[in-house]
Write a structure and sequence with these properties.
The complex is a heterodimer of chains A (222) and B (77).
Chain A: E1 2-7, H1 14-23, E2 27-32, E3 44-47, H2 67-77, E4 81-85, H3 87-94, E5 101-103, E6 111-119, E7 135-142, E8 146-148, H4 151-159, E9 163-167, E10 178-182, E11 188-191, H5 209-221
Parallel strand pairs in A: 1-2, 1-3, 3-4, 4-11
Antiparallel strand pairs in A: 5-8, 6-7, 6-9, 9-10, 10-11
Chain B: E1 2-9, H1 16-27, E2 40-45, H2 52-63, E3 69-75
Antiparallel strand pairs in B: 1-2, 1-3
Classes of the chains: A alpha/beta (222), B alpha+beta (77).
Amino acid sequence: MKAAVLVFPGSNCDRDLAVAFRAAGADVSMVWHKDMNLPEGVDIVGVPGGFSYGDYLRCGAIAAQSPIMRAVADHATRGGYVLGICNGFQVLCETRLLPGALMRNAGLKFVCKMQRLQVETTDSVYTSGYVAGQQITVPIAHHDGNYVIDDAGLAALRDQDRIAFTYLDNPNGSMVDIAGVLSANRRVLGMMPHPERVVDPAHGGMDGAPLFAGLTAALVAA
Amino acid sequence: MRATVTVMLKQGVLDPQGEAVRHALGALGFEGVQGVRQGKVIELDLADGTTEADVTAMCEKLLANTVIESYRVELGK
């Protein structure tokens, strides 16, 4: 499996994401935001957490306009896989690869803690390594993770089983506790929690490992 | 030419920052503040010949996130 991890000015989880992909057996390239193209044969693009462009204008808004995001949109249109974590989720919403938007946390505070999540669907390469309804603990660290979507969009997410993860004890005001959503073709996942921070026993948890393992299993077999 | 773009959260989208400002005003003793909505103002210095349609396109593509925000364009001198 070939993975590309994007690097924007202000990304700070790019290397963590690369480590998680490598630990799952992927061949990883780091790709600078000014590059026009993804490396040849990339299966999955990781859009990492951080504060791209200092969160100017809106979180992810400037990064969404960077040259590499055009290549990522083309990759997604061709049926390629894209995983956006935290700021990466914000970027994917700003590029409209995922529906909805992420607003300031309802409590207005930056929230940084271990967070209980529930796996809502196992019907994706990202979540096939979990059991439906499984509760996992994954760190969150964000100021703008309050997921908002209009009624029609929410109905579509529910009808199509595209809510990947929800929060237990909602930390940020997200609509119906949404922590992560899938695209209509189920190949693009955006989530605020950081699965790449729980893939090694030294991290204090392993609950992110099945996400990367499931991904590798599916994409290597493909 | 100058254009002023005002970006606000759409009606119906809860504005947590506006709510916090409303509470703070109440705490300061300003009674009767029933609602606060916080937005942003973006001033653009534009070359002559830039049209309102151009500014609208800028709003749609970047300046506002139309999923949650509405915008208003005012063209000045």
